[in-house]
Amino acid sequence: MRGDEKRSEGLFSYVRLEERIAPDHPLRAIRALVEEVLAAMSGKFSAVYSHTGRPSIPPEQLLKATLLQALFTVRSERQLIEQIDYNMLFRWFVGLSMDDGVWDASTFSKNRDRLLEADVAREFLATLIGLPQVRLLLSGDHFSVDGTLIDAWASMKSFRPKDGSGSPPDGGRNGERDFHKEKRSNETHASTTDPDARLFRKGSGRESRLCFIGHTLMENRNGLAVQADVSHATGTSERDIALALIDRHKSPRRVTLAADKLFDVESFVTGLRVRKVTPHIAIDGRVSKLGVVRKTAIDGRTTRHPGYTTSLRVRKRIEEIFGWAKTVGGIAKVKVRGLAKVRAVFTFAIAAYNLIRIPKLLEASA
Questions:
Q1: Is the dihedral of CA 324, 327, 329, 330 positive or negative?
Q2: pLDDT tens-digit profile of 255-284?
Q3: Which CA distances in Å does 254 have to 46, 54, 272, 306, 332?
Q4: Please, what is the angle between helix 77-86 and helix 105-116, to 10°?
Q5: From 61, 83, 238, 359, which residue has the greatest number of CB atoms within 10 Å?
């Protein structure tokens, strides 16, 4: 018998929002981890906010909404607020009831920017990694490090001389600007849209673009990110930040660090050995035009051990972190400006990747 389509709408609902979410939904395990992290960060939130004035959006809800944006590839804050309004799963995860009003998109952005500038993202990732059940999943001896380019939210047309010279773009909404045959560098030019962005290219023959560099330190047991950072795009920033990440992730015993050929530099390898870190660096054996093989900083003391080969194989898993963060997390081209905000958005995307994988690893180890 064919059923009739009933268009009458009930005035009340007698089913709780909690009951509408499937018991085995993946977000349930993720939400439990997030709630535990946010409870541990309550003191940090109290230090950021004033004790007087009009109450803001709860920081716990701001961060949970930010994680939803990364987990579900929501491209803008305005679209995120729209989906929280009509999506019951989003409402449940953030902590809103069916009858609670949703915030204005501009209010949400301004409140979230306050948290992004307060270095809350780094604290969130550190607290997540420090949970007792998560620490059991981590390796304390073997790590990998790498960097990836993050396109800035700025057009090449905005890269103009610092002294104010040069012709402005043509009129109109998206005016043309001819910068061919114009010699441009970060010393003489800067983006008027995002002054923190730098003109950089990944290698010879590649295009130059305004970008930042995102850095991640990964533990080698399960491929979870334990540290994340963003820096200006320079030729030495990956090595400089790698040392800073190692210093930040203090270990009481000797550890190994795997990395690609870019890190095969004498000063970097020496810096690792001073820190009692064994360098498992891929050898850069380039041959010059004169047929001379480049001298490597890695010698037989390191390469003779089977762990060296293992580290070089496992380190490639760090690309999975970058791949997820760019394709799903939405940081291939960030939609914020300024180094501090880009760092926070990147770190939250890395934390979201961990949140996707940790429940599965905990279930497998149970």
A1: positive
A2: 999 999 999 999 999 999 999 999 999 988
A3: 37, 50, 10, 17, 34
A4: 120
A5: 238
